[in-house]
Amino acid sequence: MRLHCTVSLRMMEVEVGRHSVLLTRFEGKFNAFGNLCTHYGAPLSKGFISGQRVRCPWHGSCFNLITGDLEEYPGMDCLPCHKTIRQQKRLKHMGRAEPGVTHTILLLGGGAASLSCAETLRQENYNGRIIMVSRDDLLPYDKTRLSKVMNVESSSIMLRTKEFYQQYDIEVWLKKEALSVDTDMKTVTFDDGLVQKYDQLLISTGCRYERYTQILHTMLSDKNVKFYMNDNVTEVRHENGKCSEAILSSFSLLPGIIPNSEFLRGTKIQMDSKNFVPVDKHMQTNVPGVFCGGDLSTFPLAMAKDHRVNIGHWQMAQTHGRIAALNMLGKQTELNTVPFYWTVLLGKTVRYTGYGEGYTEIVMKGKPEEKKFLALYIKNDQVIAAVSLNFDPAVSAVAERLVTGKVITKKEAQYVLLSWL
């Protein structure tokens, strides 16, 4: 296909046969990639371009516009590039284990952080043994779809096939749970009696919800969801100015989530008062060689001036896994990402980015009553977070500004035309 483009082109969608192709121009060079985000298929041509990468308008994934590589999560795969345009996805080059190499990295948990860590290790040519351990009876799957797609077949949400793990020498042990960790001996004891040695360890066992009874009854009928409550909230308790728990009239306690960290009690691995595991900017705990990521960890958030946070979201867990892997290999890399969330309510997708704690005012754009708006959260005359409905790619644009450290002032946020987007 021959295409005539002006010098001002940065990104556009073109059709090649039945394929939607993202054509980009960077420093005078054209590159062509698959136009659909490898996470959920959003058109990247409607995303936000900044420097040499594009940010997905739906969920904030970022791709390099020179290589097509995935640079910000969520997602698993890189973009198909011009040499492989007919492929549905493209992986970075990945190595395998080499015979005789005994170095072992043990990954506790079968979620986003562990899988991201395992893949990054192989992409960086780690040639030792990788063991991923999960108490689930399924291979790692896309948990973000469970709240959005009903009656989904488990096979359709697997992140990788069984053959994938075999091809890249990633051992996956299912239906196995850690009971204790000995950081002096560098061993983990499991519920079946097995004691496994490790050289480096990632703990990403996540959290769980308390099981409630006689609190919430849910009925689904004609695509409507009805909630019948048998209790009323009588008291909301707070700790350090934040809601910590709610008490119902039946004297039941709603504690929120519970960290899966009981097996760490009595170890040298530090936990906070709520049994989460604090880590540094490299995702390492207080014990050298022991890392933690995902919902279980609290970590310094760069965009919030390293304020320690706990953010239980898919994109963040994947990023944790990657950063942990790089630092396991001695490639000193600090965590520097911006939270990006989304949810679907009544068929509409709400997007959020940033960290809005302590905001003092909100600048509204659009009309909420028309189900189209952008809300910018302000603190100290700067935008610290944004939420939108039917206002793409505004939230992706805000995320890209925040992650690069570029300030969006209150004055800019109030501009009618939002020229800073």
UniProtKB/TrEMBL annotation:
Signal peptide: none annotated. One of its GO terms (cellular component) is cytoplasm. It comes from the Eukaryota. It holds the Pfam family Rieske. Keywords: 2Fe-2S, FAD, Flavoprotein, Iron, Iron-sulfur, Metal-binding, Oxidoreductase. GO terms for molecular function: 2 iron, 2 sulfur cluster binding; metal ion binding; oxidoreductase activity, acting on NAD(P)H. Residues 1-93 form the Rieske domain. Belongs to the FAD-dependent oxidoreductase family. This is Apoptosis inducing factor mitochondria associated 5. It comes from Sphaeramia orbicularis (orbiculate cardinalfish).
